[in-house]
Amino acid sequence: MSFKTYHAFSVTEARKEEKEELPGTVADNAPVVPISAQLKYNIDVVCEYIVKKIPIPERNFISPPNMIVIRSFDVNKPGFEVDEIRGGAAGGSIVRGVLKVNQYIEVRPGIVVKDESGNIKCTPIYSRIVSLYAEQNELQFAVPGGLIGVGTTMDPTVVRADRLVGQVLVEVGSLPEVFVELEVNFFLLRRLLGVRTKGSEKQGKVSKLAKGEILMLNIGSMSTGAKVIAVRNDLAKLQLTSPVCTSRGEKIALSRRVEKHWRLIGWGTIQAGTTHDVPPSPI
């Protein structure tokens, strides 16, 4: 079978599966574009659809700034003199609000430790913005959209090697909540994604959530474990293995361990939760 024949066969089979799976879902009647990133087929078409069909989200410049940290690092090189040492840097996307140079910020949950009794204690990290960058462009302020690099006065040891990934950078005094338990309204997929099947065998169905099982949650850029402590219809109460700074209405992804791998099984929306007491700001 030639490559072109095989490629046409694969597209035909994929379209057949789409007709069976998509009706009745949110993707019903949505445009489907076959692509191959390795062979660079139709990547330009996907980009065109994104630009022309997906509306630009509304940007909120008024609310207190809130940035999801997706990486953090120490910008200092070995051998730097004491006077040359700079504070740690964080990179991420601003969800809402505007960050400005010389603005005082805090990172939540911050430093998380357990005491002798096993109780969790969160201490936010307080700092000041000394620089803002978008790629190689130095900024005086940064707005939602795109990736932003934030230079701070934080101890480089605290931020090195992506130690702040999953945390939230906010303005001092905006008081975002830190949760240790979540109540979510969830929706499960019909079938498992990314699991190998033999021949024409269909993907396995996603079973219902069970009390006591362990899931992995993705909230913003944070990945954390969660224990299901109660389930009722499409509502679940989850106990987190580590505290998370988030807000009600935020979307989360649910994954279950299948054949030694975490597989996406559904998504949900945070409805409520149990918050953790955070020490008041010293600034």
From TrEMBL:
One of its GO terms (molecular function) is GTP binding. Residues 181-270 form the Initiation factor eIF2 gamma C-terminal domain. Pfam families: eIF2_C, GTP_EFTU_D2. Transmembrane segments: none annotated. Keywords: GTP-binding, Hydrolase, Initiation factor, Nucleotide-binding, Protein biosynthesis. One of its GO terms (biological process) is formation of translation preinitiation complex. InterPro entries: EFTu-like_2, eIF2G, eIF2g_C, eIF2g_dom_2, P-loop_NTPase, Transl_B-barrel_sf, Transl_elong_EF1A/Init_IF2_C. GO terms for cellular component: cytosol; eukaryotic translation initiation factor 2 complex. PANTHER family: EUKARYOTIC TRANSLATION INITIATION FACTOR 2 SUBUNIT 3 FAMILY MEMBER, EUKARYOTIC TRANSLATION INITIATION FACTOR 2 SUBUNIT 3-RELATED. This is Protein-synthesizing GTPase. It comes from Prunus yedoensis var. nudiflora.
